[in-house]
Amino acid sequence: MSTAEASVMAAPRERRRIQLGRFVLPVYTWLVILYTVIPIVLMIVYSFNQAPSGRLTFQWLGFTTQWYQQVFAIPDLTNSLVNSLIVAASSSVISAIIGTPLALALARYRYRGKNLTDGVIFTNIAAPSVVVGASLLSLFISLNVNRGLATIIIAHVTFNIAFVTIVVRARVVGLDRSIERAAYDLGASPWVAFQKVLLPLIMPGILAGMLLAFAMSIDDFIITSFVAGQTLTFPLWVYGAVKVGIPPQVFVMGTLIFLAGVVLALINVFLQRRSA
Amino acid sequence: MRVSYAVREEELQETSTPADVSLRNVVKMFGDTVAVDDITLEIPRGEFFSLLGPSGCGKTTTLGMIGGFETPTSGTILLGDTDVSRVPAYKRDVNTVFQSYALFPHLDIFGNIAFGLRRKRMAKDDIARRVAEALRLVDLPGYERRKVAELSGGQQQRIALARALVNEPRVLLLDEPLGALDLKLRKQMQTELKRIQQDVGITFLYVTHDQEEAMAMSDRLAVMNAGKVEQCGSPREVYEHPATRFVASFLGASNLIDGRVASGAGAALAEVVLSGGERVRVPGERIAQGQSEVSVGIRPEKLHLDPVEEPAREGHNAITGQVTFGTYLGVSNQYVVRGPGDTDLVVYVQNLGLRAPGIGDTVRLSWLPEHTFVV
Ligand SMILES: Nc1ncnc2c1ncn2[C@@H]1O[C@H](COP(=O)(O)OP(=O)(O)O)[C@@H](O)[C@H]1O
Ligand SMILES: [Mg+2]
Hints:
By secondary structure, chain A is an all-alpha fold. Chain A is built from eleven helices and no strands. Chain A is globular.
């Protein structure tokens, strides 16, 4: 076969591939993105909708920033949001404190029961929330623990540890082992080596793990509903309000939480970039 | 080169300092694998000592036990007179240059080099002065505020060296520190490392799998194989008189011919009958009492290759063989000659522009008895 023939044969396939790259894949990507952001866009748009009855309607009645000004006008709702923030913040910090040493142990040492720990972490993530929630509830009941903010935090810590551990472990595994050795070599005791070398280097991982934990915590509904007792978190309050109609403040708070999430995600990307 | 070697020997004799590092019957097992198998070594103060051996022979593990990252399964490690076998790394007066450099990416160059001094709670001014000095020593003055990621591999290598040397350790451990550099930079750094070692006078324990590198830099070296030290000595001793087959073949090409001791073990010159029936003379002290089956070795550059018609060389051992292969290398020609017992012998002939023997020619190979080694 001559080269001329070969190029003639190759031409159509070449063109098809270019079209796939230039046209089909980008359109596909945009459709997927659209599909995933439509609910969020709707939420943001309708947070600016007028609602004379104080309940959301999906009829466009005109633009207003009224709900942003009155975002904290419903005390119960505000309270539930505060509860959610307390739970998310404290459970992500506690999980980071517990999960980081666990991640170090899993990444750096071989010990009896390591596979078991690995398995437990995986199970923790894979287990259905209903099961976890129900079993935690029965545990609290059998221990005679009053349910409230504390039990919610305990429950959230149990599932957040797994997320923090996995994210931090990935970071530790990616670190050259001889960097720690270099710290010891230069006279740093294990504690100093941890503080001055290991911790700063895995900090982006810890922060990323905490952000993930925060996000998992702030919108958890299922497990929380089992262990909350009389306490209401934001998702629980919204769920309860659905039957009587959702006040527009919910969409405002949703929008604000979403924006905070976007900002945190960007900070996270920045941190990971800088340390890479 | 020769002169400086002689001077060093004198110094050693004069001061007769105790060994800076001693390993006594050190063994390290990982589960069932024996990584280091009964090593005993003494390294005097100020020596440039190399551990040379193929990958996986236990060099890094040996270094790790001296640095304090691994605990010996049995045996003793001494720094000076102190048994440090169970002393943690951060309490040992030893510093390491890691193959991957292991610089701290979150600290600048100053922070990296000052790390060890800060652990010793040295005064700020002294730290700044010593860091500047260390940077001058490695030829990177004024680099204090640079970031690790901004530096090239060669520069990072120098910073790793400065970071270790600034602590003025008793011993500096270097684990294949030039392995990641390209050939030209590696050659340059070899000279530089040697200069720095002579400047600071610290004992260097250098690990490499590159025999040329070890020969070029070391005062003495230990050739390791499968966790054991096969031979320890100056580069010249180890090259000219390899003690084992492994050492003979690891340090450059070598020709080994099987034979049987005929007479004179212990005498000035002993006689060995080669497998082809030829008799050759070898220095008697290289044959142990009672040894009978031996291999006689000659380095390829020690062999003369002559046409059989020419008269035999005075005082030389001689064997004949057929040229089976020839390669033109520019500086030299390399031939393969089939010798006694069908052993293939490699010969380097300096390219003097003389008539080259052809394939199939019968030639005489001759060499001086003192150039013969026995394993
Ligand atoms: N932490 C370890 N666990 C198990 N085996 C190891 C460990 N470190 C080294 N080894 C084994 O010990 C032997 C020597 O390794 P090493 O000292 O790294 O050799 P070298 O540095 O000469 O290449 C190898 O067989 C290696 O697989
Ligand atoms: Mg090694």
